[in-house]
Amino acid sequence: MEHLDGNAAAGVLAEVFTMEATTAIVTCAGCGGVGPLGAAVAYVTEMGTVVRCANCDEPLIRATEIRDRVVFDMRGTATMTLAAGG
Q1: Would the pTM of this model clear 0.90, i.e. be above it?
Q2: Model confidence over 46-55: pLDDT tens digits?
């Protein structure tokens, strides 16, 4: 499967975050790597979106739509920092 950069997750993230989420600074829970979400690696399929750490390839975020809800699993993200006033 071909991967895209983390910007491919912008659509699904925009449904939850009101500010530009791809500029968020993310810390990987696996390797401790830090960088903008837009620089991560995203895999987008009909089943959902998986955003992986650009350093160690561990999943940072998993997102899918189930009926009328968007479900996020962010346990691979130690922290996510968004600019105030986004």
Answers
A1: no
A2: 999 999 999 9
